[in-house]
Amino acid sequence: MRWISFRTCERHLKQKVGDLSAQPLQPGGRWRNVPVGVPLSIRGPHGSDERSLTGYHPGARWRRFPGYLQHFSSWEQDRSDDHNEHISPRQKRDAYSGVYSGKRCRMESCFDFSLCERNGFKVYVYPQQKGEKMSESYQNILSSIEGSRFYTPDPGQACLFVLSLDTLDRDQLSPQYVHNLKAKIQSLPLWNGGKNHIIFNLYSGTWPDYTEDLGFDIGLAMLAKASISTENFRPNFDISIPLFSKDHPRTGGERGYLKHNTIPPFRKYMLVFKGKRYLTGIGSDTRNALYHVHNSEDVVLLTTCKHGKDWQKHKDARCDKDNAEYDKYDYREMLYNSTFCLVPRGRRLGSFRFLEALQAACVPVMLSNGWELPFSEIIDWNTAAVMGDERLLLQIPSTVRSIHQDKILSLRQQTQFLWEAYFNSVEKIVLTTLEIIQDRVLQHTSRSNLMWNSLPGGLFTQPQYSTYLGDFPFYYAKLGVKPYPKFTAIIHLVTPLVSQSQPVMKLLVAVAKSQYCAQVIVLWNCDKPLPAKHRWPATSVPVIVIEGESKVISSRFLPYDTIPTDSVLSLDEDTVLSTTEVDFAFTVWLSFPDRIVGYPARSHFWDSNKERWGYTSKWTNDYSMVLTGAAIYHKYYHYLYTTYLPASLKTMVDQMSNCEDILMNFLVSSVSKLPPIKVTQKKQYKETMMGQSSRASRWADPDHFAQRQTCMNKFASWFGTMPLVHSQMRLDPVLFKDQVSILRKKYRDIERL
C-alpha cells in the first residue's frame, strides 16, 4: 500500500484543477473557465446557476432582512476580463450575450433592495406618453397595478418600476408592435440600466424561428414573460406568466367549470386536443405527430391545416382528412367532457390551451419541452398537471390511463383552485407577479409553499400578518390544531350612555357571562366624552373601552392589538342576545373558523329588470350574508379588511355610516368561496332593532335600505364578480324543537325564544 502525504495530495489536486480551468468553454461542455480557488457555481432546480461564479457571497443564502447586507457585485463587475483570460473575444460574446445582456442577473446582483427600505414594496407606473399606442391587454395590466395597494404615484417612494410603453407583443409582424422601443426606453430618466424594473411580455420573436428576443436590451430589468424557456429563464429573478388572450377579464373572472365532484372522476373522453397543425417550421413536429395516437373514441386529437392566407400552397396529403375530422367536433363540448387535455407547444412554448384546460377542470398534459411553467417559483404543478415529453408522445395515452382515479380527482380539484386563485383575471396574474417579487424583497415575511398551494391561496394569505400558519383561519385541520377556545367581544357603540337600562348594558352583561368570553371591547364611536368607569356594569371578564379612530364605522374592523383571541364576536349596541345564544354560536364557529357564523341573515339577488344586484331582508329559506351586528369570525379578517380592501370602498362606507357589514361579507366569501353560516333562527332580532327609538340607530334612516342597494353594486364592481354564495343551511342545537323533555337539551334557553 502506498501512502501519500496531505501536502502531496493537495499539490496534485491543485495541478489537476489548474489544468481544467485552463480549458476553454465549449458548446455543450461541462467545464467552465474558473480561476483556481474560485468555487464552481451551484446548479439550481431549473438547470441554471443559482449563484454567480464571480459574485458569490457566502452569506447570500442567509439574507433575511433587506438592507442589512449589501447586494452582490453588479453584472458589470461579473463581466470582468480578469476571469476570462483564456477565452477568445468571440467566445466571450457567446458566453455573455444571448437573449438578454443581464443573463446571469439574480435579485442579489441586479436589484437594489435599498429602494424598498423606506416605504416598503411600492410600485410606480410611468405616465403614458402622448401618441404612444397601447393594447387593451397592457392597459389592463397597468390598471391592475394602479388599483392595487402596491401602487404609488411618486417615483421617489417606489421600489419597483413599470413602463408605460407597451412591451407585450414584440412580434415585428404584429400590428401591436411598438417601433423604436430601444431608444424610447433608454431616454427614460429613471431607467438606470433597467435596475428595479419589470417588463411584461406575451409574444416575442417572429417567423420563422420565434426566438425570445424582445428587440431591445432589457438590461438589468426583471422579465415577466409568457412562453419563456428554462434555458433563458433566470431563477429567482424572472417570472413566467401564462399566455392569456385579449378577451381575458381584467377583474373578477369566471369560476372554474367544476361544480361538483363525480366518483369515479372519468368523463366521456380520456384525452383531447383541438388546434392548428403547422406543416413546417418551429413547433410543427409535435402537432404533426398527434394523429398517431388519435383513435376517434376516447383519445380525440384534432388538428387543422386550414389557417393562414396561403395554407393550400403548403398542405400535405393528410390535410383534407384532418380538416374534415376537425369540423366534426365542438371544442367546448370536448373540453368540458374530457378527463385530460393535451397542451402541446405551438410556434412558441406557451399556448392558450393551458388556461382553457385549467378552467374546464380538464387536467393539463404538458407537451412542451423546455417551457418554464407559469409561476413555477411558487406553484407545485405536479399536483395539478401531468408532465409529458414531446419525444415520448406515443406513451402519453398509456400514461394517463394508468393514473389512479383518486389522483385524477386530486389533480382536477387543484386545477380549479389554481385557476380561481391566480389565473382567472389579468388582475390576479399581475398581483401574483407582484406578490412573488415582494416575497423576494421581504424574505423574512415570505409565504410558505403551503400558503401558495392550498386554499385560499397566496393573494389572501398576507405574511405581514404572521408567518405562523396557525394564526390564520385556513390551516387548523392541516396542522392538527384547534382555534383558541375563547372569543373577544367587540361592541360598537354610537349612542351616549344615559341609563343603566339601555340595551347595550344588558348585552354587555349577557356576553360577559359566556363561558367562552375572554374579554369585552367597547368601541366608543360616540361624539360624547367617554363615560366614567363606574358607569359600566361589573363583570367577571375585563372590559376595555377604546375610542374609535376618527369615529368612522370602519374602525370596528381595525386589527386591534388588544384582541388576544383568534375569534371576534362583533355586536351592534342594539343587539339582543342571551348568554346561551352566544355560547351556541361560538361552538358552531369552532367547526367553521374560516366563515362568518351568526344570527341576522340577509340575501342578494339579480334584478333582471334594472340589470343590477339587489339586497333583501325578507325572511326566506335562502341567505347569502350574516350581518356583523351579531356574528363571530376570525380576527384575521380585520387585518384583510384594513390592508386588502381599497381606500375608496372604506371611504364610501365611512361617509354613509352604512354597508360595512355587507363589505365584510363580500370579503370573507371572496376568500373562502363559501357562504356564511346562520345559527338558530331568531326572528325577533329584526323587530327588536327596527323598534329602536334611538335617532342614532341606522335602521331608523329611511335612506338606509337604498344605500345598501347601491353598496351591493359598488362592491360587486370592485371585486369584478359577485362573491356572495347562497345557502339554505341553518344549524340548530341537537334536539332543537324536538318533542322531548327540556331537561335533555343543552341549550334550553334557545327553546323559549
Can you walk me through this structure?
With about 750 residues, this protein is α/β, with parallel strands linked by helices. The protein has 3 domains: about 90-225, no CATH class; about 270-420, Rossmann fold, CATH 3.40.50; about 485-730, Alpha-Beta Complex (Spore Coat Polysaccharide Biosynthesis Protein SpsA, Chain A). It contains 24 helices and 23 strands. β1, α5 and β2 form a beta-alpha-beta unit. The N and C termini lie far apart (about 95 Å).
Our Rg estimate from Cα atoms comes to: 31 Å
What is the CATH architecture term of the largest domain?
Answer: Alpha-Beta Complex
Specify the biggest β-sheet.
8 strands, mixed
Name the CATH superfamily assignment of the largest domain. Spore Coat Polysaccharide Biosynthesis Protein SpsA, Chain A
Strand order of the largest sheet: 15-14-13-16-21-17-22-23
The number of domains is: 3
Mean pLDDT: 85
Number of helices: 24
> What would the principal axes of the Cα set say about the shape?
globular
* Class from secondary-structure proportions: alpha/beta
- The helix content is 25-40%
What is the fold-level CATH name, i.e. the topology of the largest domain? Spore Coat Polysaccharide Biosynthesis Protein SpsA, Chain A
Task: Please give the alpha-carbon distance between the first and last residues.
Answer: 96 Å
- Low-pLDDT sequence parts: 1-99, 686-696
Number of strands: 23
Name of the top-level CATH class of the largest domain: Alpha Beta
Strand content: 5-15%
Domain Glycosyl transferase: 487-736
Membrane topology: Single-pass type II membrane protein
GO biological process, one term: ossification
Pfam families: Exostosin_GT47, Glyco_transf_64
